[in-house]
Amino acid sequence: MSEITLGRYFFERLHQLKVDTIFGLPGDFNLSLLDKVYEIDGMRWAGNANELNAGYAADGYARIKGIAAVVSTFGVGELSLTNAIAGSFAEHCAILNIVGLPSVNAQAKQLLLHHTLGNGDFTVFHRMFKNISQTSAFIADINTAPQEIDRCIRDAYIYQRPVYVGLPSNLVDLMVPASLLETPLDLSLKPNDPDAQDEVIETVERIIKDAKNPVILVDACASRHNCKGEVAQLVDATQFPVFTTPMGKSGVNESHPRFGGVYVGSLSRPDVKEAVESADLILSIGALLSDFNTGSFSYAYKTKNVVEFHSDYTKIRQATFPGVQMKEALNKLLKTVKSAVNPSYVPSPVPQQKLINSPAEPETPLTQEYLWTKVSSWFKEGDIIITETGTSAFGIVQSRFPNNTIGISQVLWGSIGYTVGATLGAAMAAQEIDPKKRVILFVGDGSLQLTVQEISTLCKWECNNTYLYVLNNDGYTIERLIHGQNASYNDIQPWNNLQLLPLFNAKDYECIRVATVGELNDLFDKKDFSISDKIRMIEVMLARMDAPANLVAQAKLSEMTNAQS
Amino acid sequence: MSEITLGRYFFERLHQLKVDTIFGLPGDFNLSLLDKVYEIDGMRWAGNANELNAGYAADGYARIKGIAAVVSTFGVGELSLTNAIAGSFAEHCAILNIVGLPSVNAQAKQLLLHHTLGNGDFTVFHRMFKNISQTSAFIADINTAPQEIDRCIRDAYIYQRPVYVGLPSNLVDLMVPASLLETPLDLSLKPNDPDAQDEVIETVERIIKDAKNPVILVDACASRHNCKGEVAQLVDATQFPVFTTPMGKSGVNESHPRFGGVYVGSLSRPDVKEAVESADLILSIGALLSDFNTGSFSYAYKTKNVVEFHSDYTKIRQATFPGVQMKEALNKLLKTVKSAVNPSYVPSPVPQQKLINSPAEPETPLTQEYLWTKVSSWFKEGDIIITETGTSAFGIVQSRFPNNTIGISQVLWGSIGYTVGATLGAAMAAQEIDPKKRVILFVGDGSLQLTVQEISTLCKWECNNTYLYVLNNDGYTIERLIHGQNASYNDIQPWNNLQLLPLFNAKDYECIRVATVGELNDLFDKKDFSISDKIRMIEVMLARMDAPANLVAQAKLSEMTNAQS
């Protein structure tokens, strides 16, 4: 096989990176391309229910496997992906956004094809996507196509951002040399400038030596740019207390004796707030300091000794070192950091979280507070835990994750409905890694409605590793807290949610409703329930205005920000 | 009330144009704006299930009422609308695309807010939308805001295209003079240049005088730019045979003795093809000559005497008259056209359509051919008939519409799933015009899955004027015809579709399945069934590869276009 089709080349390259599920929908400009998915052993076509969900699924898959791909068709397909792709851009996920284009000839003739704006402009959607892509390729020449594909895959992976690749329908069947596949993709980071890096390490070590009360603060990009290992080593080497942001949650082992909790500025637990803000050095890793991630920018450090490690630069106090990437810099630092710690440093005790609910009568109606505390004891090692923007993303901050948990929550972009698609992506990734790995979704009844049909794809693939907790509080509680508590625009049409799995023809499934403390306790006490052998939907009935305390406080800050003139 | 809020001002202006339903979803940057909807008597907030569906609904509403509005929130909300807005742009629908933005202050400070890309760029989504909008406003100054709003509404209406309006959350509560509302919006078209128009009329009349065998061909923009009345008068005055394109269907009264059928190039019925192509003059009105609208560009006129009337220009043979708009030009022409027709012109007989099925045993499985013929006799005056891209949009071409029917089909843009949202918009518009008006949807089981949750909004508003025909052929039959007949990417997860209405808590509803000729005939024979007093879902079981003959032919042409190198 000295030559293969361009379409196959693309998927073989992805397969080399263990991308074994391709998300998306068929459309008349990508059908020939999709044929090639089936030529590759171990690769599958997810076949999503709509494109937005497919994009969310790719994002969820990428958060588990490091990179993902979604295929759509020109115009009508790709535009339904914009919200998902923008979210992956904001939150650093590597997505190959592959679009089947009309043939080169049809484009050149400016034919008034269906799926166009009717004005002969075939590059308009590509132009739109450039705004939310790390890079892009609008392929028109078979000779340079393999290199262009390699460049795009590489950039998506390195920068952990979406990349747009337009593939004309007539090119996917043209042949390219198969031997190109023998040279592995170069996914290595560009080395840091040695002088700049040396200066960074030297300065950081000097500050560390002077620190009496330092902390490590871990944020989202530590996970997304594959630095969880470095973080863990840094904690072990220094014994500094380690905290995460909401978005960084699951970036460190929360059972580690040096784990202190989740820092969210003024919305933090008082002991966590005190511990972080009284530090005389903060080693910040992979920060993405958005409003919801910081309690509306309410950080109140008392120190100027902040070192920020980022994927593309390092900042020490006010000095920026462009291009000093954290992966290499942290590894360099790890070689000597232990000896840099002042011998007189005494690891201080870290804040401890209350993880047991106060006793309550079984018939007590469930509250968010009870739920998030209780669920911590049900989580187990290896779980993938997904929380939707709304009460769930705030509530999860109050829970504790076992070791090797992966948390997924779209704290910065915050598009409601995201998690239903992301759950599919994570569940399919889990099937490929370890079919027993549990994928646990917490989604509100309002958010569920936006993307509900992707549960059908979970059923199709028999993702029997999923738990779908639907927090039913009769509408958009997070918005009610921000504005319009009694406004009907925050209401939704009530659904009979427990009818969803049978509607979608789920094979092995279970539907459960819990409304009281006793029902929840009984559920978690059942041994069978913890074994992931079917798709489960658990509808959790909650009062309309019940919400985690940190969300109530955040909502007040948000309305103030919105009303600012 | 000498002053009103800017938010209220916007909705009052829309209310003046009889926009009484506002589509969209709440989000933290538009909540204060939404409060204002409730201040206006007779205006309602639809509250859609997701933004894409809301955009489709606005499009459907605009096709009935001439203009519509959809409200979303910054970033996450608006980006989910892009596909719908691009469709409204391609197909000429007037949509106010209103986006709630972060406050002016938050933008100026480049705060790393949620719903941003995390890079401080607050204009990026506006820039993306400019590509698919007639015009836009990114409002930042309360003093010029009312004029900007007026300009945007005006341009949307005049050009029948979407317009983007960004409204910062802090501005919607600022006051503007109420007296501004007393000056009605100027929605008049700019007058045509009199000299150019006179030359057009004179030339057209000269060609008409010479014509022995002329025809009128009506396309989508005749309806969209409000020229159905002019078309009807032109047919009456000249007695020329009149045809429509697929996209122009319902632009003329199909019961009119001079109506000859639907012309789709080589995919037309032979008698229609012959009648149009042998004409020695074609008066084309509002043409949008896309592939699916022309049988893949297979027009084969034998005449060079083609006169094209467009919303923004006129073309006579090879001569273009920029700025000569059809509305005024047709009205001018109508004053004298009767006398311009050659006295020796004898109105030739027009092609007649077979509208009765061949007799079949009751247990005969239903076919598309039987359905589309049979359903013609069930349609009645005033119906709104909506057909999804796929077998329905092709099948409907074989049906006949009663007078005053409105047909909705997205032939150019062709985004599957569009019709479920559009049905909601049309049904809510119908409630406002005439609650007895029936809204009849034909959608495939594949397309339904993309946007199914909008049926929930139909249930919420008790749109008991709707008939939802789900053509169940077990997947994407249109794609199977184009490519990959047995490819699993054209399969879908089968759903128990008749469980949808109870899932969504429909109040008055009926669920019916028909699979045979006899069952369909019995259904249409029931008098009760024709009375629109509940939401009905009728699942029509069809064979996987059964399709209207014109679609089978189109699919062959499409695959050829795709494969062109």
How would you explain this protein's 3D organization?
Chain A has 565 residues and is an alpha/beta fold. Chain A folds into 3 domains: 3-181, 3-Layer(aba) Sandwich (Rossmann fold), CATH 3.40.50; 194-340, Rossmann fold (3-Layer(aba) Sandwich), CATH 3.40.50; 368-563, Rossmann fold (3-Layer(aba) Sandwich), CATH 3.40.50. In chain A, helix 11 runs parallel beside helix 13 (326-340), helix 14 (368-376) runs parallel beside helix 21 and helix 16 packs parallel to helix 18. The longest helix of chain A has 17 residues, at 194-210. The first copy, chain A, is globular and about 70 Å long. The mean pLDDT of chain A is 95. Chains A, B: One of its GO terms (biological process) is aromatic amino acid family catabolic process to alcohol via Ehrlich pathway.
